[in-house]
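Materials and Methods. Structural model of Addiction module toxin, HicA family. The 61-residue sequence of Addiction module toxin, HicA family from Candidatus Viridilinea halotolerans was retrieved and submitted for structure prediction as follows.
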Amino acid sequence: MKRTDLVRHLPAHGCELYREGSKHSLYRNLATNRVAAVPRHTEIKDLAARRICDDLGVPRP
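The predicted structure was written out as tokens:
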């Protein structure tokens, strides 16, 4: 999955960019206050994308 697709999917389901790390972007779900790291690769493996969505409590892409 492309990183840009995941980054568009997360805000559509109630998440926001929490802060930028050196190699990851941290996203936070505003409803549950859960935080997950999104790596800054152009391609993110589907398993990693599903894990990020599960960690944040949003539907899988």
